[in-house]
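[step 3/7] fold_predict: job queued, chain A
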Amino acid sequence: MVKDVLLVALVLACAGFATALSRRHRESSGPGSDAGATVRRRILFPFVGDALSEPVLAATLRLARLEHATLVPAYLAHVPMAMPLDAPIPRQCERAMPLLEAVEQRAARAGVPVDSRIERGRTYRHALRELLEHEHFDRVVVAADTEGGEGFGAADVAWLLEHAEGELLVLRPAHDQQVVVASAA
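[step 4/7] structure written:
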């Protein structure tokens, strides 16, 4: 009986400690907080398609390294209306994984921590909305649409300006851009 009471007290104490830590973390990462300096910034790098802009990736990695930020590369996956939103999407994963791997390898060489993900949505904008609603990012870096169609168009950038919190950086690579292409495995 005494052991049961001690066990319950220990569990309640642990839960209270976890709640206090969580509250302290939220408060310390708020604007204007000195304690927030120890919280690592997060830079979202969303992308679509089968390739990444090399200059935009290089610039994003330099920025993340200089700011001591975690890079969050996010492949935005389109799920057709005919399929459930949580349906398996193997073709898109086959495209995303080599690109995410390339970003992670480049980030490792640059000394930048990475938190990769694949976000689903009915449209690319829907996937981006889901990501922005559920996570905090200090900055969003996107590649502007180019002739190859591997970036974000003017309408998507305008949408981001209205809906993304924090800073937004849109980079348009030169026409002779190099790309990191997903290899067909």
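[step 5/7] annotate
Residues 2-28 form the longest helix (27 residues).
The chain has one domain: 40-181.
exit 0
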